[in-house]
Write the structure tokens for this entry.
Amino acid sequence: MLKSLLQPASLSWRGVLLAVPLGFVMALLTVLYPLPGMLLAASLGGCLLLSKQPQYLLVLFVISLAIPIQKSLAGLPLNAADGLLVAWGLLWLFMLQREHAPPFQDIRVPIIVWAIAPFLLANLLAQVGSIAQGSSLKQVLRIVEWFVVLPMLLLVFRPDERFWRFAAVTMLLVPCLFAIDGLYELASNGTRLTGMLGIPVPIPEGDMAQIRHTFDISGRAGSAFGGAQGLAMYLVMSMSVAIAFVFRAPQPAMRLLAGLCLVICLAGLAATKSRGGLLGCVALLLVMLLVIRPVLWRWLVLVGGIAALVTVLTVAMFPNWDGSIAGLVPGRPEAVLDRLIIWGVALDVFKENPLFGVGLGNFRDEFFSREVWLNVELGYPSLHAHNTYLEILAGTGLFGLLTYLAFLLMMARHLLRRWRARQQDNSSVFTLAAIGTLAAYMVFAMVDMLLLQNMHFLLVLLLSLGLSNPAAAAVGVAVATHEDA
């Protein structure tokens, strides 16, 4: 019997060899320094738990995407999501040793990493002519973190039915928490539930200009984002999961849960009063409907033509329209005119640096160096192109914009291929959700500069889930693998 207990199946000698010295060190430390010793023991226990159950880390990660408060470390702005990625990376190899983990030898480079490689090359070329290489390098590191590091970390998950159920519940419930927070904030004139929990909003202070892009003084619901645009985009991009489950849930209970979560998220989106969020939501819903029912294309063309004609006639007969573009857009005309001015400056920067730009993230410096006058005075020195495509065009030139558009189109192509080969399971629901999220992102990018936000984490997460083949070894593996045969 003793011999059987000493077999590898009964006893892990590697675990014993690690546990004995660590246990001795923690016991000694607890005796000498009780508080640090207990903290070390709790931290080690948490690491062991996350190594065995990494899905809990995924929940924390999705929550952290709605808490953008940042701290600067060596000049690099970091937030909770960055810290969780570091912990995830340190535990990555341990997670792959757990039971039911994807076989390490079967893991491949995710399709997202291959697809983003040309854009990374464009950023490296833009570094040569960058007007502020330190600032643009920080942005390049962000691109690597979003589009390379996160897909590699997601390889610890096997795309089985248990994982899909857990991911579905997570992506349905977590956004509701912040939608409810936004509704409470609007109803209570600025009091946040997250604020009561001690979660601050990213209000700018001192000379930390790199974190000032998230501050919003509009008074609309913003939850922990501190601004309506951040909450609106978070809700729009994540509610695609709820919409997809309403349309294609394999189980009635999931459809009911998704419907409830969708109502809450829509109410939270309304509380943000975000025009960009509304535009992204319409694009998301429209694209998802067209994917489900391709025959709707003919009706879309017909209804779109009639709507365009009615809009032109209505505008022409509108008595208070002054004939300007700003008068057509709801909101302050001065703010609309300022966006047009900023877009014009972005095009001027591109014309002066057409091939490789001035370095990603350096448009702000170019703008202020030109001493352009705006109609609405900025309360803090943060400025971007208010258009992701124009920001990329000014920062990385024509080569950078073309490679980024190619990345987006490649993602759409792979998702549509995955959708056509779908089965009636939860993985296909995430494929539909990823298609909607990608559509919302591409529309939202036309009215805001998204490279300053961690919403790319959410985009890459949903793209990885949507691209996953249930027969593949790990989440995010390319659709075109031998498993598809």
User: Anything to note?
Assistant: The chain has 18 helices and two strands.
